[in-house]
Design goal:
Blueprint: H1 2-60, E1 66-70, E2 76-81, E3 97-101, E4 106-114, H2 115-118, H3 124-135, E5 139-144, E6 148-152, E7 155-166, E8 172-181, E9 185-194, H4 198-210, E10 213-214
Antiparallel strand pairs: 1-2, 2-10, 3-4, 4-9, 5-7, 6-7, 7-8, 8-9
Length: 216
Amino acid sequence: MELMKYKKKIIAVVLALMLFSAIMLQLAGCSCSSKAATTTSSSALSSIGSQSSTTSKTTTTQAAANVPVKSADGTISISAPSGWNLNDLGLYPGAVVGIANDANSEYLIITKKPKTEVGTNSSIDDYMALVQKVFGLVVTGPVWSQSSKVTIGGCSGLAVQLTGIRKSNGISTVYYINAVASKDYYYNICGYTDSSMSAANQAQLETIIKSFKETN
């Protein structure tokens, strides 16, 4: 009888130890799950923060929007970056449109001349010859490219590139000259910049030039 009681006590102790071990394993499993959940939550927050930061950077680097710029009589317009000086008619005497980005040495002027002032039976070649004569007076050592045909805002004409030392400031300058004709007028749409910056600025100046149109 004593032996039987002893065996029962041993069995009870073993069962108690097994139950205790099972409880501890369950608790350990919960702890691991909690840590994993915490880690996952931290990663998610980190990811959201990263996305938010990227979004913020994208927003702050957006380029300035383009805005329409019209001549005083409202007959012609171009589209130019809103951050530019959009009313700089002092760039050239007789300009009907003048815009400037001094910080990046980018400039554009438009002149307008009735066809009758060039000649009753004048052509775009006659007007281009007149433009080249005038620009030849404002630079030293002018170098002209071959002319090419262009159509801008429905007006056909000729485009030519001029490089020379500007007499007003002694800086080597590149001019992108576009002489075009409408029904009654000739226009010179000319963008220009320092020669050292022509590779960087040419594309934007040409984009502005191509936005030209008559609005009457």
